[in-house]
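Q: What residues go here?
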């Protein structure tokens, strides 16, 4: 393919209780709720978006929280870990903070030139904080919960677990990612200049059990396209190369196409435009349930199906009215 992504757009996972999910990502990890909406394909379920102040591509972690969803199973054929970027020398603070929140962490360890702290969210989703000596220029969401000098800058990387690497590597190369490093059975690929937010690790585990996507697992990984024309050209190339790819879908805040990489993980190409201020101002992001125009006539029924969700005042920029 002739089109190359600039990096990760977002990662979407399955959760259980939406309030528990919001409390963890807003208060424990210190992210901002940048959009409270619904799963457009299943509007009886929330779709919650967390990120930096504006929900910029590359900072986004999103969830479909299904009440009573059974636990998933981590394994081959899925993204088995999601990592966030934090400043160098921040992991000691995070280890104490997570311990105080009742979150068990694995002792920080070195991987290449990075320090990594691994833990799980309340539904069992595997997460990591990665501190790298190279500064991450992305500005954090500063809400007073996590000090800005330690706060999450955005996504760092995802890990895809596969039976064999060859076909997955070929597709990643076709998306413009290049091999950056190899350590045992872990291959690291990078888009653009290899900065945090543009990385994917391929973990090769021949014969390992297949994963099951349900609560506590990643549903899909989205890669960036700058605009709709680039996305359309990319979709055409995928189809011409024999990849089964969806039509372009309107997700209100971006446009999407979906396909699977050969190892089994569901991938998405999402546009950077139009962004989360398309239907509410920056100061009010995430505070009200937003519906796309085609679901707005059913607002009353949709709201009746959704459980109540309370957002902490910290989700508002300082000085904004609660």
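A:
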């Amino acid at each position: 393919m002739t089109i190359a992504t600039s990096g990760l757009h977002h990662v979407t996972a399955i959760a259980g209780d939406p309030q528990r999910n919001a409390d963890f990502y807003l208060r424990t990890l210190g992210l901002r709720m940048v959009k409270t909406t619904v799963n457009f394909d299943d509007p009886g379920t929330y779709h919650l978006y967390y990120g930096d102040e504006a929900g910029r591509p590359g900072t986004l972690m999103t969830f479909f929280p299904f009440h009573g969803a059974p636990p998933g199973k981590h394994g081959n054929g899925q993204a088995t870990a999601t990592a966030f970027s934090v400043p160098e020398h921040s992991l000691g603070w995070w280890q104490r903070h997570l311990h105080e929140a009742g979150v068990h962490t694995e002792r920080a360890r070195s991987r290449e030139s990075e320090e990594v702290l691994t833990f799980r969210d309340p539904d069992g989703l595997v997460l990591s904080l990665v501190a790298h000596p190279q500064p991450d220029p992305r500005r954090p969401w500063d809400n007073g919960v996590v000090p800005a000098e330690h706060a999450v800058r955005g996504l760092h990387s995802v890990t895809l677990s596969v039976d064999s690497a060859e076909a997955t590597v070929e597709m990643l190369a076709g998306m413009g990612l290049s091999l950056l490093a190899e350590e045992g059975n872990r291959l690291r690929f990078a888009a653009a200049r290899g900065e945090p937010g543009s990385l994917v690790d391929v973990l090769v585990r021949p014969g390992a059990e297949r994963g099951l996507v349900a609560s506590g697992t990643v549903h899909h990984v989205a890669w960036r396209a700058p605009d709709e024309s680039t996305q359309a050209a990319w979709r055409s190339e995928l189809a011409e190369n024999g990849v089964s790819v969806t039509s372009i879908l309107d997700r209100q805040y971006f446009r999407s196409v979906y396909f699977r990489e050969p190892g089994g993980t569901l991938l998405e190409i999402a546009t950077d435009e139009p962004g989360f201020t398309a239907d509410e101002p920056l100061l009010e992001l995430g505070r009200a349930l937003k519906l796309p125009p085609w679901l707005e006539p059913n607002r009353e029924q949709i709201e009746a199906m959704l459980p109540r969700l309370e957002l902490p005042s910290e989700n508002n920029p300082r000085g904004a009215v609660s």
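A: Context that may help when evaluating the design: Helices lie at 18-28, 91-100, 166-174, 228-240, 299-305. The radius of gyration is 19 Å.
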